[in-house]
């Protein structure tokens, strides 16, 4: 089991396909500003939809602090595309199908129905973790706390 990522840790670069199948690296995503990487258990499930839509609804606030939310789960590219389209999310949704990035961040869970824990990491442009939000049940707290950290 991998170590859990904490505030102050440096994240190594990784590359995953987004909802269009385009490979996106962390370095590339960070080129324009901090990234709020939110891991969610399953695209299109009620909790993950509520969480992702809250990030979407706060898009202007994130843009105002120069940051962008990026979703990530073990869902296939096609499912991420359905999720993005159905809710007009307007943010990259990365497909971590083999779970390598989930392991890197220490958010893997043992059972296969929901292999990813719900957790959010605010990552600065130098790949340093500025904030970590862990809450399985309070969906809005992820975007709210990420935004608060970016405004500090």
Automatic annotation (TrEMBL):
Role, per record: Thiol-specific peroxidase that catalyzes the reduction of hydrogen peroxide and organic hydroperoxides to water and alcohols, respectively. Plays a role in cell protection against oxidative stress by detoxifying peroxides and as sensor of hydrogen peroxide-mediated signaling events.
Family: Belongs to the peroxiredoxin family. BCP/PrxQ subfamily.
GO molecular function: thioredoxin-dependent peroxiredoxin activity
Broad class of enzyme this protein falls into: oxidoreductase
Keywords: Antioxidant, Disulfide bond, Oxidoreductase, Peroxidase, Redox-active center
Family annotation (InterPro entries): AhpC/TSA, Peroxiredoxin_AhpC-typ, Peroxiredoxin_BCP/PrxQ, Thioredoxin-like_sf, Thioredoxin_domain
Official protein name in the record: thioredoxin-dependent peroxiredoxin
Domain Thioredoxin: 5-152
Classification via Pfam families: AhpC-TSA
EC number: 1.11.1.24
């Amino acid at each position: 089991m991998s170590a859990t990522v904490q505030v102050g840790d440096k994240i190594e670069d990784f590359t995953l396909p987004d909802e269009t199948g385009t490979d996106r690296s962390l370095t590339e995503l960070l080129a324009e500003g901090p990234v709020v990487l939110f891991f969610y258990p399953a695209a299109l499930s009620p909790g993950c939809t509520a969480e992702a839509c809250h990030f979407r609804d706060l898009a202007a606030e994130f843009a105002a602090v120069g940051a962008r939310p990026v979703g990530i789960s073990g869902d296939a590219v096609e499912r991420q595309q359905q999720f993005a389209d159905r809710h007009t999310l307007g943010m990259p949704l990365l497909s971590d199908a083999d779970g390598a990035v989930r392991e890197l961040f220490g958010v893997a869970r043992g059972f296969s129905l929901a292999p990813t824990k719900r957790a959010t990491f605010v990552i600065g442009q130098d790949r340093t973790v500025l904030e970590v939000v862990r809450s399985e049940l309070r969906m809005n707290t992820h975007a709210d706390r990420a935004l608060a950290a970016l405004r500090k």
